[in-house]
Amino acid sequence: MTRGTSSIPATRLAANLHLLATVGLTTAQQVQLLGLDARAVRLALQTGFPLPVSPEQQQRIRSSVEIAQAVHVLYNRYPERWFTRENNRPPFDGQTPLAYVLAGGTAALVATHRSLLADLNGLFSTSLESRALAGRLPQPDIEVDASL
Predict the structure, then answer these.
(1) Which residue in 95, 101, 87 sits closest to 20, CA to CA?
(2) 95, 87 in Cβ contact below 8 A?
(3) Dihedral of CA 102/100/83/6: which sign?
(4) 3-state DSSP call for residue 8?
(5) Which residues of the chain are modeled with pLDDT < 50?
(6) Residues 10, 50: Cα–Cα separation, whole Å
(7) Alpha-carbon torsion 128, 107, 51, 28, what sign?
(8) Residue (of 77, 85, 41, 78) closest to 60 by Cα position
(9) Burial class (CB in 10 A: 0-12, 13-18, 19+), 17
(10) From CA 36, how far away is CA 42, in angstroms rounded?
(11) Phi–psi pair at 96, nearest 5 degrees
């Protein structure tokens, strides 16, 4: 192992890959998302030996797993659809979450994780289009009793 790397046990790797499969990601997409070498992953899973990972790969694994967990909580009826449906909310802006994270690397994974974490905490974000639409909706007159 080189300086700055650690390893992930094969059993944990297998569990993480299984979780990513439950949100509809293929093996090739999982490996690409995690920034791992497909042959090294296959070898680790076949032999049971730990897989060496860099700090960036550790971050990608951690973020990906937490994203998958959040997707299961937020979209529990059809979690496998979330990654492949176009999404107009920030940070996706019309892309599928999968296309966004694959193109944007670790920074995109972190932004996606942050967005889903906000959703889990009830701080839902919206698109600029939906905000503009909401601003044009009629607003009811509200009378407040001043004696309260």
Answers:
(1) 101
(2) yes
(3) positive
(4) strand
(5) 1
(6) 5
(7) positive
(8) 41
(9) buried
(10) 10
(11) -75, 150
Tokens representing residue 133 in the block: 């639409």
Structural tokens at position 139? 């607003």
> What's residue 125's pLDDT?
65
Rg from Cα positions in the chain = 20
38: CB partners within 8 A, 6+ apart: 27, 28, 31
Cα-to-chain-centroid distance, residue 1: 28
Q: What's the token pair of residue 104? A: 């944007």
Q: If we measure between CA atoms, which residue out of 118, 27, 140 comes closest to residue 70?
A: 118
Question: How far apart, in whole angstroms, are the C-alpha atoms of residue 63 and residue 105?
Answer: 11
Q: Is the dihedral of CA 115, 118, 122, 125 positive or negative?
A: negative
Output phi, psi for 53, to 5 deg. -135, 145
8 Å CB contact between 60 and 112:
no
Task: Give 7's strand partners.
Answer: 52
Q: Is residue 79 within 8 Å of 70, Cβ to Cβ?
A: no
pTM of the model: 0.79
